[in-house]
Amino acid sequence: MHPVIAPLLIQTDKSFEELYHLHWEKVLAVCYQGTRDLAQAEDLMHEIFQSLWERRTELCVEGPVANYLVRAAKLKLLAYHRDSANRRQIFDQVIPQKAGFEETTQRQVDYHLLSEHVNELVADLPHPCQDIFMMSRQKGMSNKAIAASLALSEKTVEYHLTRALRFLGKHLSEYQH
Predict the structure, then answer these.
(1) What integer pLDDT is reported at residue 1 of this predicted model?
(2) Are the CB atoms for 83 and 55 separated by under 8 Å?
(3) Separation of alpha carbons 151 and 46, rounded Å
(4) For the whole model, what pTM was predicted?
(5) How many helices (H) and strands (E) does the chain have?
(6) Hey, what's the torsion of the CAs at 96, 102, 106, 107, to 10 degrees?
């Protein structure tokens, strides 16, 4: 016998608050276990609950909500670690490695400054460019998947990606050798 898949009944702010208060500690614990960084774990937990709120009218959960939230936290952790690896790869391309250059405190400082600068620049992008850039570069989605997700044409997605990359290239030119 198959379990019944029922819509998650979050119809009011109060029902969402009750769900949040019942499960936030467990979700935070899973996120912390995967990051060992409380601030990052809290950010991930809040993203999970924000997504839950945004999809409340269409979301169907099979089994206990607690199990769903733990799975969501584990998937969020996988995405977080993948995105971190992608970010490092992008920054490694922006800051070319010099032969024989050892990892130094200065390189780490430069990396963090560049990372913050890129994040600030991405935050300054116009809304559609920012969303499409993050879906493409941080979530690893294809142009076709982004277009389907946002109900846009692939040409529109390409336009916004090109616009975002030009903007970043213009503002990061000082980092290119």
Answers:
(1) 43
(2) no
(3) 26
(4) 0.47
(5) 7, 2
(6) 30
- Give me the mean pLDDT over the 17-26 stretch: 91
Does residue 9 register a pLDDT over 70? no
133 contact partners, CB below 8 Å, separation of at least 6: 122, 125, 160, 161, 164, 165
CA atoms within 13 A on the CB side of 100: 0
DSSP 128-160: HHHHHHIIIIIS---HHHHHHHHT--HHHHHHH
Checking if the pLDDT of 42 tops 80, the result is yes
Closest CA to 89 of 117, 70, 115: 115
User: What phi, psi does 6 have (nearest 5°)?
Assistant: -115, 150
Q: Is the pLDDT of residue 144 over 60?
A: yes
Q: Per residue in 108-123, pLDDT tens?
A: 777 788 888 888 888 8
Q: Are 147 and 131 in contact (CB under 8 A)?
A: no
* 3-state SS string for 114-125: HHHHHHHHHHHC
